[in-house]
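Morning. Coffee machine broken again, so started the prediction first thing and wrote up yesterday's gels while waiting. Chain of 406 residues, entered below exactly as on the submission form.
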Amino acid sequence: MAFIPISQVKPGMILSADAADVNGRLLLAKGQTIDANHLMVFKMWGVSDVAVEQADTDMPDADKPLDPAIMRRVAEQLRPAFANNDLSHPAVAEIFRQAVLHRARLAPPARVGAVTEFSRPPSPPSSDGAARRRNLQSRDIQLPEIPSMIFKINDIIADPFSSADDIAQVISNSPGLSALLLRIVNSAFYGFPSRIDSITRAVTIIGSREVSALAVGVITMEVFKDIPKNVFDMRAFIHHSLACGVLARILAASGNIRNTEQMFVSGLLHDIGRMVIFHYFPDQAPAMLAMTGTGSLYEQEKQVLGFRHTEIAADLFEKWKFPVTLSQNIVFHHRPMAAQDPVKAAVVHLADILAHGLGEGKSGEWRIPTLDATAWEKLRLSPHILSGVIPQALHHLGFLMTVFPA
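Came back before lunch.
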């Protein structure tokens, strides 16, 4: 018997010990032959290595070599985006390396040019900025009322006597939401070997809190999807949000952090406060987005609006009575060490940085968020794990982009 990294496991190998996920759920029994679907399931549920009867550790063929000239050009264009980060930090250095590799693979020529969004010349702030800050400092925003379905789901979650059937009944009242959730749970994103044909069965297999969190995430994104294109490209925003969600889920699984669905939803909704800004400040938002000087959009929000998108998220979640464990991951994703659970907030923090670095979608930010070195240490991850996390995330991101409403 030999334990080998999941990256070196090949179809046809035979398990010499049971393979289980981080929660102890059996994924494949001892003596079973591993196939391609099993490999996908192992990766999605955070299995880092398995025991096999014959350890053939030959590495697969290397990727096609990248053009060094393209890589240099991408690195030069991307470097200003990392201006607020310490490239000598091992994790930042690996994030930068992976970002260059990913963007270079998509070149030439169109996607390389996309890197230049980080290095546009600064635009001068508008002359009425001081007055606007005074007017908005009070943060007197009429946040939208909680959608009735989220209200019902939150009530059921809070009720210790509620059942899986109660959750399934509420969600099943929306055919569109039910169909979307079933498409997601039946995809390789979850990797279940048999088809899940009802919300009730999904709740039974995945868990009521997990399915509820997924439903809440989808509904919340739907509330703000009608932001005018002249304010922001919402398809690009949803792309970035999904990228952060998928990365957060896989990072959590890799770090043996339970409740990976909550991490997916935390990543999905991490910039929900920015969607509120785009929706309620359609005049100020474009001007603020154009201010590409030093610093970051996160800091510019405070200067122009008097508050940051994370503060708006806190207001929204308080009004909608979101679970504290979920809202904390989101509200503190820029300051994870201030969260009640710094490790989970750090997962979203890292996922956001990775999504920006890879250039998967856009949030309006023109600088890669600064990595909190203390939060990175809390995660106890090796920088080398990113080379496995990123390909998995990109694979599932492609599918999710086809099913999420835009």
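Residues 55-63, 109-129, 132-137 have pLDDT under 50 and may be disordered. Going to sketch it on the whiteboard this afternoon.
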